[in-house]
Amino acid sequence: MKGRTEIAELGEFGLIDHLTAKFQNKNKSTICGVGDDAAVIEASKDKAVVVSTDAMLEGVDFDLTYFPPKHLGYKVVTKGISDVVAMNAVPEQITLSLGISSKLSVEFLDDFYEGVEFACKEAGVDLVGGDTSASVTGFIINITAVGRAKKSEISYRSGAKEHDLICLTGNLGASYMGLRLLERERRVLQGLGDAVTPKFEGYEYLLERYLKPRARYDMVESLRKEGIVPTSMIDITDGLASEVLQICKSSKCGARIYLERMPLAKQTTALAEEMNIDPVIAALNGGEDYELLFTVPLELREKIVNLGCIDIIGHITAESTGAALVTPDGSTIALQAQGFTPKTTAKE
Amino acid sequence: MKGRTEIAELGEFGLIDHLTAKFQNKNKSTICGVGDDAAVIEASKDKAVVVSTDAMLEGVDFDLTYFPPKHLGYKVVTKGISDVVAMNAVPEQITLSLGISSKLSVEFLDDFYEGVEFACKEAGVDLVGGDTSASVTGFIINITAVGRAKKSEISYRSGAKEHDLICLTGNLGASYMGLRLLERERRVLQGLGDAVTPKFEGYEYLLERYLKPRARYDMVESLRKEGIVPTSMIDITDGLASEVLQICKSSKCGARIYLERMPLAKQTTALAEEMNIDPVIAALNGGEDYELLFTVPLELREKIVNLGCIDIIGHITAESTGAALVTPDGSTIALQAQGFTPKTTAKE
Is B14 an 8 Å CB contact of chain A? Predict the structure, then answer.
């Protein structure tokens, strides 16, 4: 009889590697399978369709006690299309598959779809299909996003080369701090009824980054205008550390990230200080930033600087050097990834 | 303040219509959106990619006390690619998104993926991506299937014309009776320990149809060889009645289905008799047959008969006549659809 191996022993990334190791692609139309932000499928001689799928589960990925359904609808679209954008492709369609419990009303779903519709309009994507099931255990959302790109313009995780610049859009850690703020206020309010309102003043930006993040589809357009095709790209969903390690693993390279170049918003550092959290930890391991991390050859530095909204936070090194954070005094700290481990109890 | 409308008041199909009414497609590449088995997206001048998504939830769509993980892996692939097949397209890729609870072991997932791999090999499809999340509430599976077809060969639900023949592959109700058998044996065994084994002899076919159904991708090939493009097509997942009504709604037509032409397997009628169930009800409302229901012009009757494995069970009529079952004495019974209604308690 077989023994029992706990999933936690392998971790999320180990589990995926383990489960998909045996699979081999057979169809000519499969250009890229498991192991990137999205699968790449041939559309025509020079064009490809990219497809990505993501789940969001109540009690794990969101808590309906403080997540307004309209924002949730918006955020799930962001989560889906961000993976398409991370391939340097233009998102064009999504499908939604929902597991709906009897706790939810039609009015709740109306609000949820209003958020979906708003995000779709903003990003120029069509909702083209879906599936609804009864759920016995809360709200379950699955999004599949489809996009298009010229084959020659797709950015995989695997193309980073030594000396490439490591570039980052936006700032990090704000979404994580927004979540921490919501959790703190929920605890403060528990049992106090309507007499007390949560204290969010001065931290509205953090809430927006957590509840209503926008995917960086604008960057696909900006990069194209400048004629830049990143040698590798990934979106920040599990925190900077995890994403840098993914690129290093796929591209068989190392990386150096400079601590003092880590872009942090003022509200992020302010709340982190208030809550005694190291903002760098929020940036490295927080996740759900939906910003883009990408690499370009050194000679494109000026073009990147001219784009104006991108930080160059480090560079690619030889594989043997590993991936590390460089502190202002020049010492290095090895980057460590965080994946999920299954939870044993419900949060409720 | 808004009132609260229960989802059960609208029903599954009413809910989908309600939620998606406001959405309009904007992208040129969106050929067909919500409302068919799969979305149709332009690939090149004459080719299209079709995309479909489906969820399977523990406690709703399957019960792990009698569903072996290997079969579950096989069945979820069938469920996904059956929608692609129902567009008359060739399935080529799938992605899997899993919600995994700590109750599940690595060995369980190994078995599950073995079933996935077996089904993929058999159908010639590639597993190209996925997502894994922690689930606090059981095993959650979402499959997205991608296929390809010439635009001119895609069968929508909306193309059926008056006088078209209504055709059906295979037989109906076997999967439903397989499920009823498993549920009966589980009840019989509850509390009796290992001393008693379930009684499945003589009904192995029904178990296979429920636990390990095969999608009819063979039919896409057969139809193509004969030069037949169905005027409409749908796969049988919610029972014949529901699927006939879907075609009638999309094609703005009526239908007559002849009771005596309903294909039923011997084991289906035998177990139905034993359990005092009307086998016609199993066929009409049972679902999960993964057979294909399609329409062709009257003049293709001989070609269809020559294919050898297809029953002509009725014909398309004018919209005003509605969709009905015709009994041997010539009387008609209006067909009624069944969708899900959210469950209020977990099965466990």
Answer: no
Kindly report the number of other CB atoms within 10 A of residue B83's CB atom.
30
Does the CB of A126 have a partner CB in chain B at under 8 Å?
A: yes
Question: Which A residues, 19 through 38, put their C-beta within 8 Å of a C-beta on chain B?
Answer: 19-20, 22-23, 25-27, 29-30, 32-34, 36, 38
Domains assigned to chain A = 29-153 (3.30.1330.10), 165-334 (3.90.650.10)
Digit-coded pLDDT (tens) for B125-181: 999 998 888 888 899 999 999 999 999 999 999 999 999 999 999 999 999 999 999
Tokens, residue B288: 């999960």
> Is the CB of A131 less than 8 angstroms away from the CB of B54?
yes
Chain B contact for A18 (CB, 8 A cutoff): yes
Range A159-162, long-range pairs (CB < 8 A, 24+ positions) = A159/A230, A159/A231, A159/A232, A159/A251, A159/A295, A160/A231, A160/A232, A160/A247, A160/A248, A160/A250, A160/A251, A160/A253, A160/A295, A160/A316, A161/A231, A161/A251, A161/A253, A161/A295, A161/A297, A161/A316, A162/A253, A162/A316, A162/A317, A162/A318
Tell me the pLDDT tens digit for each residue of A65-94: 999 999 999 999 999 999 999 999 999 999
Q: Which residues contact A7 (CB under 8 A, 6 or more apart)?
A: A15, A341, A342, B100, B102, B104, B105, B106, B109
| Residue type present at position B229 | V
Euclidean distance between CA atoms A227 and A263, whole angstroms: 25
Question: Which residue in chain A is spatially nearest to B48 when comparing CA positions?
Answer: A43
What the block records as the tokens of B257 is 């289905």
The label of the residue with tokens 């010229």 reads: A150
Q: Where are the alpha helices (DSSP H) in chain B?
A: 7-20, 69-85, 106-123, 174-189, 204-211, 217-225, 240-251, 266-274, 279-285, 301-307
Which chain A residue's Cα is nearest to B49?
Answer: A43
* pLDDT over 90 percentage in chain B: 78
Helix (H, G, I), strand (E, B) or coil at A270: helix
Strand B292-296 versus strand B332-334 pairing type? unpaired
Percent of chain A as helix, strand, coil, to the nearest 5 = 40, 25, 35
**CB nearest to A43's CB, from B49, B125, B138:** B49
ipTM of the complex, rounded to two decimals: 0.90
Quick: pLDDT tens for B68-111.
999 999 999 999 999 999 999 999 999 999 999 989 999 999 99
Taking a C-beta distance cutoff of 8 angstroms, is the pair B53, A152 a contact?
no
B52 touches chain A (CB under 8 A): yes
Q: How many whole angstroms separate alpha carbon B158 and alpha carbon A276?
A: 61
Q: What are the Cα distances from residue B290, in Å, to A314, B159, B162, B235?
A: 53, 21, 25, 6
pLDDT of amino acid B186: 84
